[in-house]
């Protein structure tokens, strides 16, 4: 029996329970022990008339001792019934206790884990994982993975594993390299994604592929990233993006329904990249609240605020945001919003309060002559706060979008128990790299341009939209995908635009290009991030909370202290030597 399944149906039965001492209370000769396993809690009672060996064992018990208990299930006294517990109406009268192992002094109380520092919890992750909170999240992760496989099976997909050691290919981040002992001076790379291999599977005739692969990226420590993560990798032949959308929406609906008992409405909303940026200031908008950006450039030019006049005259834009009832905001609160805008490149955040007597505060004096126009264009009413950012288009949108996100968090406008999905489509295919003065692929090198741009790729790469799409939920990018290029000649044109010579392309991607000589089918796919999906479903804000053994923000595992140095003999076998970085010269030298 487990510690979570005993009910009144088991009254009178002798049972054996195994688990850990969750609580231990001595009430004047009567001992109460809450025994815990991953299924729940059961109250074990050692009565004052219990056999002496049982009482002696009970007196030795401490937190997290691992024990076995034999006893009879009986009803709890009426005043001790706990209707919130699955086992809250019964208890087990112990007739035998065996201490299976003892526990040292705990570095933190397991059920008070949230009070402990994260690095301490990661160092003793095996204790952290014993908590009901972590057990529930790992259970949810398991359930999500099971439901993904269940749904994909019903859609005639094969789960096919691709290699973990591959050749190094440029995919946006640094590769983790694995030196080859048998081939000195040569290296494998750990895959950033199975991108090339899943496309080769399409060439191989496996028209419906998926897997839950580990992906590896040697990135600098920043944000909520892990050097390894898991994704739900999907590729399909003979499809349009509509087919990919239909499959993905069905998958998400199935997973949420069966893993979370949440009825996810489908189909999902769709926004073009340009529309999402214009309306929400982000290509991953949080749709749980309705604050939207407004195009204010014409009115800004008609006002007398020279900063905005110059911005518009120089080809920039002014974006605005109306905060209902924001007129009560203090200057300190507005300054905090301005700091958020500046983090995302804005030079400042202008503001106006709408009152019964007109416009007040901030830059209101520059717009007094067109106050009615400002109010009308913003749809404002007395009590509102109007916020403005003027800059080049992307900066203005992104900076005010960051303010919108902060307001959503600060005002509690978005419930973690609500899930709002949307598609972002028609991304730019290329991004201008100002530092290197060249075009870079916005997604990856194998994404198909939209058909209407095929004839004009080289003339204006910045205007080209790709058959790219992102799946967004609650302000997080949950998945990226695209329809792929399967025409070798079109692929060569893309290589040329981003500065890849045919020789370089052959060196990096020769095995894929060779495969594409042999009748590749049209194909496309998507790769939802499993970690981020489970994080959202669990109501957490970091993926470290839903991975059994994560690294910390520095990419270090405090539990096993990796990465570590290795023996000199191992380095010699791999024909490697360590070159220490040079010490920086003294400033006084």
Describe this structure in words.
There is one protein chain. The protein has 589 residues and is of the alpha+beta class. The protein has three domains: 8-101, Nucleic acid-binding proteins (OB fold (Dihydrolipoamide Acetyltransferase, E2P), Beta Barrel); 135-271 and 421-546, Bira Bifunctional Protein, Domain 2 (BirA Bifunctional Protein, domain 2); 290-410, 2-Layer Sandwich (Gyrase A, domain 2). Helices cover 29% and strands 23% of the residues. A hairpin with a 7-residue loop joins strand 7 (177-179) and strand 8. Helix 4 (132-154) packs across helix 15 (530-537) and helix 10 (331-343) crosses helix 12. It is globular, with a radius of gyration of 30 Å.
Structure summarized in a few sentences:
29% of the residues lie in helices and 23% in strands. The chain has 589 residues and is α+β, with helices and mostly antiparallel strands. The model has no long low-confidence stretch (mean pLDDT 94).
